[in-house]
Design brief:
Elements: H1 2-46, E1 50-53, H2 64-78, E2 87-90, H3 98-107, E3 112-116, H4 121-130, E4 136-139, E5 148-153, H5 155-169, E6 174-179, H6 184-200, E7 205-210, H7 217-229, E8 234-238, H8 244-256, E9 263-268, E10 284-290, H9 292-304, E11 313-316, E12 323-325, H10 334-348
Parallel strand pairs: 1-2, 1-3, 3-4, 4-5, 5-11, 6-7, 6-8, 8-9, 9-10
Antiparallel strand pairs: 10-12
Helix pairs in contact: 2-9, 3-4, 5-6, 5-10, 7-8
Length: 360
């Protein structure tokens, strides 16, 4: 009888334990869900967001601004960020928009904010001083502040190669340079182009013209018309969206006369598509690539990983693969390409120093 009572008591204890165990198991799930939710929130908090303010010419200028935006988008995609929340851009229609656009991105709490273009130097300097805890980057200008990284390129080195290509491919012995605004960065493009062209043909005739704008395709077209009409057969432009007009003029001339020797050398991004007339005809000889997109990705990742290079100036040239010529898709013959490659190697090794200003 005692054994039976003991057995009943033991059974009751085990049953109670089982019920309590089951209750405990049920409570575990919400706790784990809570932990996961907390982890998810933590990840959101850790997201390093990036915004950029364009120079004039638009984010789809097929050149400078577009290259920077492609870099921001690549960074966003790499880290699974949502457009407008994790990465975004604001477009400047004039220089009056620079400071207000930078401030707008600050109010949206972006961790790193880019200012694209030399003309944004003053606005970036003011914003950085007013917001010492912010992180900023400026392309094509130098701002001396601990919370700003300045990104520069040796445009003259890539432009030198463009000059070699232009002079070697010219049949008339006349080539042209169309610049946007007359500022140091565009001066470097011109200087390199002139130096490269003269290196392979000391007697080459070079016409240079600054349009005074980065967003006026009509000015680019008018300037190109004047140059081509005077016998120039290769034009290198460093004029942002203004350069789209150079392509328009070259294509019109090629359509009228399929045998016309008219070429355009693009800038910043591969502008092969800009010169396309049909599947067999294209007026783009090559493009001088400037790795703004790659620099944006590199600096964004460094900053995300706690290695923000504030107060530094990072400079990218041929040796760093920061500038180069795009694939010509067969427009440049092998013997000319060999000459270009030889100069590229010498510049990268430091055997040739390319000036930043045109020698007077």
């Amino acid at each position: 009888m005692k054994k039976r009572k003991f057995g009943l008591v033991l059974s009751s204890v085990l049953a109670a334990s089982a019920i309590l165990g089951a209750c405990g198991a049920k409570e575990e799930k919400p706790a784990k869900e809570k932990e996961n939710a907390s982890s998810s929130e933590s990840k959101k908090e850790e997201a390093f967001t990036v915004g950029m303010v364009t120079d004039v010419g638009g984010v789809d200028d097929k050149s400078f601004n577009q290259s920077a935006w492609e870099g921001v988008q690549a960074y966003g995609k790499e880290h699974g960020l949502e457009k407008d929340k994790g990465f975004a851009y604001l477009q400047s229609k004039s220089d009056a928009d620079y400071e207000s656009n930078l401030n707008a991105l600050l109010r949206r709490d972006f961790n790193l904010i880019y200012g694209i273009g030399y003309l944004m130097e003053d606005a970036m300097t003011a914003i950085a001083e007013e917001n010492p805890d912010g992180k900023f980057a400026i392309v094509d200008a130098e701002v001396k502040a601990d919370n700003v990284v300045s990104v520069m390129f040796k445009e003259q080195e890539g432009a030198f190669l463009a000059g070699v290509a232009a002079a070697k491919m010219s049949k008339s012995g006349k080539v042209g340079f169309v610049g946007g605004v007359d500022i140091p960065v565009i001066n470097r493009f011109e200087a390199g182009f002139v130096e490269g062209a003269k290196a392979v043909n000391p007697k080459i005739e070079i016409q240079s013209k600054y349009t005074g704008a980065f967003d006026k395709a009509d000015l680019g077209k008018i300037t190109a018309n004047s140059m081509y009409s005077s016998g120039v057969d290769v034009i290198f432009h460093a004029a942002g969206a203004t350069g789209n007009g150079v392509f328009s003029e070259a294509k019109e001339r090629k359509k009228k006369d399929p045998n016309a020797n008219v070429w355009v050398i693009g800038v910043d991004a591969d502008q092969y598509e800009e010169g396309k007339i049909d599947d067999k005809t294209n007026v783009t000889l090559t493009s001088m690539l400037k790795g703004v997109n790659a620099a944006v990705v590199d600096i964004s990742n460094k900053s995300k990983n706690g290695e923000f290079p504030g107060g530094k100036t990072l400079t990218y040239g041929l040796a760093e693969d920061g500038v180069k010529l795009a694939d010509s898709r067969g427009a440049i013959p092998a013997d000319v390409q060999a000459v270009i490659d030889d100069y590229k190697e010498k510049i990268a090794k430091g055997e040739i120093k390319v000036p930043e200003k045109v020698k007077k």
